[in-house]
Structure formats: C-alpha cells, structure tokens
Design brief:
heterodimer, A: mainly beta, Alpha-Beta Plaits, five-stranded antiparallel sheet, two-stranded antiparallel ribbon, 2 helices, 10% helix, B: alpha/beta, FAD/NAD(P)-binding domain, Flavocytochrome C3, Chain A, domain 1, Methane Monooxygenase Hydroxylase, Chain G, domain 1, 3 domains, five-stranded parallel sheet, 15 helices, 15% strand, Dissimilatory adenylylsulfate reductase alpha subunit (chain B), SdhA/FrdA/AprA (chain B), flavoprotein (chain B), oxidoreductase (chain B), electron transfer activity (chain B)
C-alpha cells in the first residue's frame, strides 16, 4: 500500500471527499466510519492527486516494502499559486520544496 | 462502501452532436475546438474518472516533448520520427500533427501553463523536440479550459460500447460509477480518446507496487476493444512501446538524460552506449533500451544515469522537476538517504505497453483521424501510426478530428439511426451481463493470469522482450481459456462492473496483439518488436502495416469475437528524398554541459 490515510486527521469532508472525486483510478471511497478508504490499496498509481486536494493533510504517499521502502512520507498542498511539498524520512528529517 | 447495482432500469437516452470518449489531452482539445468553431455545437465528454486529474497527466509533466524548436520544421520532425521508428510511420499523420505542435503549445501557455523561457524570451529548449515546463497542474488547467468551453462533462462515466447502425456511428452507452445507472448518448460523430493499454504484461514489481508503472495503469485499452467490437481497425499492435525508466519508481529518464545530460553507465561505471553499433550512428530510443538490456544480460548491470558530480543546487532542481511529474522519485531519494549528486540513478526497461503517443499501436485512421467507420474518429494515444506525438501531438489530433467532424457530420440534421433500438439493446445486454454472473474469480485474478501468460510467452521483460512462434501459439491457447474465465466474471457494484469490463477489454486487446505478433515474421524494432525465430528485418515488409478487425458477424455478449488480419501497404506521403534536409541543431553531446539554465521555482 502506497497511500497512507491518517485516521486521526481524515473526517471524510462531510460526505463529499474531494480525494475520491479526483483519483484517476476511482480507488477511494468513504468507508463505514465516515473516513476515506481504498478499495484496492495495491492499485494506487502514486500520482498524488488525492494528496494535493486533502484539506487536512490526512493523505500522504509512502514507498511499499516491495521496492525497498523504509517509511518516508510525502505530503503536498496548494498554497496560493504554489505547490508546497514536504518529505519526512524514516529518521524524522524534513525536506520542503515550494514550486 | 458497496453500492450494489439493483434493478437496473432501461438506459435513459440523451442527445448531443460531438461525443468525446475520454477526457485527456486529446479529448479535451477535441471538445474545446468544436465549441470555439461552432458555439452552438453540443459537445459531451464522457470520462471514466475526473477530467481534473484523469489519465496519463494525473501527476503532471515537466516537459513538452513534441515542439518545433527554432530551425525545426514539420518535415524535419517527420524525418526525426521516421529515424526513430525504422521508417515505419504514417507520414500523413505525423506531418499533419507536426504542423500544429507549436500552436498547441501556445494554447497551453494561454491556458496558464508555466513554460520556462531563455534569455531571448523563447521557450527554453531541453532536447531536440522538447521544452521545459512546470506542468504539475497541466491537467487541472486543461480541465478549466474544457469547462470554459461550455462542453458538457460527465465524470465517472464508464463507456462500455459504441453504438453503430448502418455502418455509421450513432452514439455510445455508459454507466455511472456512483449509481450504476446506464445512459445511452446519441451523437452525430464520436471521438475515441481513451488512451492506450497498460496491464497487458506483468508489471516489473508486484504486490503493493504492482501499479508502480510508467504508463497509467488505468488505461485498459477500452477504446480499442470497443472499436474492435464495432468493426473498426487497429494497426501495429505488435509494435509495442517499452520505456527505459528509473528502476523501482518507473520515473521518466528524460528529466535526467536531457535535463543534465547524464551519461549511461553500467555496473562497472563504464559508459556502455558507444560500445554498440547502431543502425544510423546515433542510437534511437529503442536502441538505447536494447543496449541497456544487453548490458544487464551480460551481467554488467545495473545500468544507471550517472548524476554524480552535479551540484546540490542541480540535485534540487532535478528533484523539483520530478515533483511535477513523478513525485515518488523524490520520495525514493529521501527514503534511501540518497541525493542524485551522490549516487547514480539506476535504470531498466519497463513492462511493455501499447500506446500510440510514444509508439505506433492504435486505431487505423485517415489523415482527418476518421476510422474506417463513418463518423467515428480517434485522437491521441488511441491512434496508431504517428509515434512521439505526446501531449501536444495528441491535442493536435483532437483539433484535427473536431474540424473534420464539424465539416462533415456535426452541422447536419440529426440522422434517424435505423436500428438504434436493437443496437442499444445489444450493447446494454453485453454491458450488464456481469451483473448476472455469480461471484467467482476476481477481475484482478484474471488480469494477473493474463499478464503472466503474456510475460512468459509473448515477449515479456523476463524473456528479454523477445518471442517466437511457439510461444505466441501457447499464449493463444492460454488466452482462449482465460477468455472463458473473463466471460464468467461477476460484479455486484458499479466499480466491480468497471473492473470486469476492463479485464475483458484487456483480454481482447491481448488476443489482437497475439494475432499481430504471430503474423509479423521479422524483427523490425529492437525489443519493441523482436523475434528469436526471425531475428532480422524483412525488406518485403517495408511499409506494410498489419491491421486487425472483427472478421464477421456481430459482437454479442455470448459470442466470442473473431479477428482477422489485413496487410495494408501505405505509400509515403512525402518521398524520403524530399523530406527536409534543412540543418537542425545538433543535440549537445552527453556530459557536455550541466543543467541548461536549470529550473527556477
């Protein structure tokens, strides 16, 4: 699974989750707890479309162990006309990009 | 979470003029062009996901790779494309789109796409036909232009079949992914802009990384499958596209190879590219892939792009370029505690894809992008014969199709469509058939079985991408069995119904691919189309195009579709000697310069 869903943060956007609307694989749905869930976690393409629209930074990407992933996470959010990217590696070190 | 499809009611019937299937670069441009030329024209776009982030451009893109830089012409672009594809391209298609590449680029700029500029104010060149952009938001910008055009957009609309009456396209049938409700759309002309096909071959990595592919894993070849069922022709499926990509992340390599002119080195640190003989002196894209796989085979892998020695600033610029296209590459660097300037970037061949934007597989069309069915058009990755068209070429094809459709179909009074009811009934029966099947195997299981068959017998990565006749025949036998498994797949939700149709479409496209592979008894393009039993090109097949189409009868839910192969000889629209001999700017030698200009945030 490459999409991480933060159960503490996701509130399901009052039943109208933008992430589910934009996923190019139609993979995301509201689960029974009113939070986002993936129908097939293995089918994520890592495009980050959902990550970029999440208003609560509840979604992030990680690398699966199948390709040697060690737990780093990537977030993105739109601020004004720029995309703000944050990567936190396994040791908790943070790297930011603004593009 | 599971919305069952219950009590499916008879499809509602809507009317439009220009029906566009697929809301990617080609489909959006086709819709926008029709609306701007004819503001009263009714245009409807049906998109399986959401036009804002659907298709190949979901994550963005960091270069426009089909642009005529100063000194280049449509004719010189054609010459370049022909060299890359062993002369086997449709001159008429390449020339007609090449003439519109810069117009499409300017259009993207007008839609708000940030394009970097050089000191003279020109678009900043990256490679011969390439310019640098900040394209993270290219798809939302296209979607905004589509909305502004006044076209009607239906997102999460899964098209299952075209409706053809009297040899002319009459519309299409789709279902809504949320409600499961079926809707038929009558149209005067229809465009297939559904992209190419991934998932025919086994992905390089499995499990949770199974979709870590370069090409969109959601492109199931559905437009091709529905075109085959409707009686249209597909061309050159045997000319697959295999990408040289960053190992594990499948991130594009042009960002590094063109962006910082990094050399390709093998596991011994040697630049292996000059050690091979190439047909034309300078290696083509396919030959670079071949050389890399030969090094791996000889035990001199892993190969890599040598980014060591870049400055930290250049490393950050590369990271920024990847964030705009393939963000997991940057995540991978952080995760492995590496930076591009400290470790070479490993590269390898991808799983094979069928895609008309990079290779030559796709719908067989005339210069106006009309298929062999009246009123049915194609554009973009779905169209064969015109490789290396990429984003701007796909847009150009959408515009060309829209212009011709306007002149020949869209301004006519609506045709009566004799036989509509019967054709719709047939399409609807096929579309909902999986809802009647009992749950058994899953779509994913059948899809993975298909991928295993193609991987081992039909030129997958593990066999060095080459194949031979006995393997193709074994694959055909296995596929016949798998098609029965596909026909038995059941669905209870609209999402499952989509997945079942996708795997059935992939099975049909794979069956057509095997017919092509069986028939072309030569090796024309390194690894893209390479056989162990016929290892050399056959000059008698120069300019011979292999096409498949439905052989006879009607495609029915219960009836297996039979395919026939046609050989079509296509004369060159522009004789080779007349193609431009104008000087074109030589690309800088690899390693000659560092980041040209770099990317400014």
């Amino acid at each position: 699974m490459t999409l991480c869903i933060d159960r503490e943060r996701c509130q399901g956007c009052n039943g109208h989750p933008r992430c589910a609307d934009v996923c190019p694989g139609n993979l995301l749905v509201l689960g029974e707890q009113g939070q986002i869930a993936s129908r097939e976690p293995d089918d994520c393409w890592d495009c980050a479309a959902c990550v970029k629209v999440c208003p609560r930074q509840a979604l992030s990407l990680t690398l699966p162990p199948e390709v040697g992933g060690r737990g780093s996470r990537l977030w993105a959010r739109q601020v004004g006309g720029k995309m703000h990217w944050t990567i936190v590696d396994g040791q908790g070190r943070t790297k930011n990009f603004v593009i | 979470m599971r919305s069952a499809v219950e009590n499916v009611s008879y499809p509602e019937v809507l009317e439009t003029d220009w029906l566009v299937i697929g809301g990617g670069a080609a489909g959006i441009m086709a819709a926008v062009r029709a609306r701007e030329l004819a503001p009263t024209c009714r245009v409807m776009v049906l998109e399986k996901a959401n036009v804002t982030r659907s298709g190949c451009l979901a994550a963005g893109i960091n270069a426009i790779n089909a642009y005529l830089n100063p000194g280049e012409t449509a004719a010189s672009f054609l010459q370049y494309v022909k060299k890359e594809f062993a002369q086997q391209v449709r001159d008429d298609l390449v020339l007609s789109l090449a003439e519109r590449l810069n117009e499409m680029t300017d259009r993207l700029a007008a839609w708000g796409l940030p394009i970097y500029r050089d000191e003279q104010g020109r678009y900043r060149q990256r490679g011969r036909a390439s310019i640098q952009i900040n394209g993270e938001a290219i798809k939302p910008l296209m979607a905004a232009a589509l909305e502004a055009s006044g076209a009607e957009v239906r997102n999460h609309a899964v098209v299952t079949d075209l409706i053809v009456t009297d040899g002319r396209v009459a519309g299409a049938l789709y279902f809504d992914l949320h409600t499961g409700q079926f809707t038929a759309v009558r149209a005067k002309a229809v465009l297939i802009a559904t992209g190419g096909a991934s998932g025919i071959y086994q992905p390089n990595t499995g499990g949770a990384a199974r979709h870590k592919q370069w090409y969109s894993p959601f492109n199931a070849g559905s437009g091709w499958a529905m075109a085959l069922r409707a009686g249209a022709e597909l061309t050159s499926l045997e000319m697959r596209f295999i990408a040289l990509r960053v190992a594990h992340t499948m991130a594009p390599t042009g960002t590094i190879a063109q962006g910082v002119k990094a050399k390709q080195i093998n596991g011994d640190g040697v630049n292996y590219v000059p050690n091979y003989a190439y047909a034309q002196g300078k290696p083509t894209t396919a030959e670079l892939l071949w050389a890399t796989m030969e090094e791996e085979k000889a035990g001199r892998g892993p190969c890599a792009l040598d980014t060591r020695g870049l400055t930290p600033e250049q490393g950050d610029l590369l990271a920024q370029a990847y964030l705009c296209m393939c963000p997991t590459q940057v995540l991978q660097w952080a995760d492995a505690e590496q930076r591009p300037e400290t470790a070479a970037v490993p590269i390898t061949g991808s799983e094979p894809y069928l895609v008309g934007g990079h290779g030559t597989a796709g719908l067989w069309v005339d210069v106006h992008r009309q298929t062999t069915i009246a009123g049915l058009y194609g554009a973009g990755d779905a169209v064969g014969g015109a490789p290396k068209k990429y984003v701007t070429g796909s847009m150009a094809e959408g515009a060309i199709a829209a212009e011709h459709a306007l002149d020949h179909f869209l301004r006519e009074a609506a045709a009566p469509h004799p036989g509509w009811t019967e054709a719709l009934e047939q399409a609807w029966r096929r579309a909902r058939q999986p809802l009647n099947n009992d749950a058994g195997a899953t779509a994913r299981q059948v899809e993975e079985a298909l991928q295993a068959v193609m991987e081992y017998h039909a030129g997958g990565r593990s066999g060095g991408y080459r194949y031979e006749q006995s393997g193709i025949e074994r694959a055909q036998q296995s596929l016949a069995q798998l098609s029965k498994a596909g026909a038995a797949l059941g669905a209870t939700t609209p999402y499952e119904l989509m997945r079942v149709h996708e795997v059935r479409d992939r099975l049909l496209v794979a069956a057509a691919l095997l017919v092509h592979q069986s028939h072309r008894r030569e090796s024309r393009l390194p690894l893209y189309q390479s056989r162990t039993d016929y290892p050399a090109p056959d000059p008698q097949l120069d300019r011979t195009w292999l096409n498949t189409r439905r052989s006879h009868g009607r495609a029915d839910a219960d009836e297996e579709l039979k395919l026939e192969i046609l050989e079509r000889v296509w004369e060159e629209a522009v004789p080779r000697e007349q193609a431009s001999e104008e000087p074109v700017p030589e690309e800088q030698a690899p390693g000659e310069s560092a980041v040209r200009g770099g990317i400014s945030a």
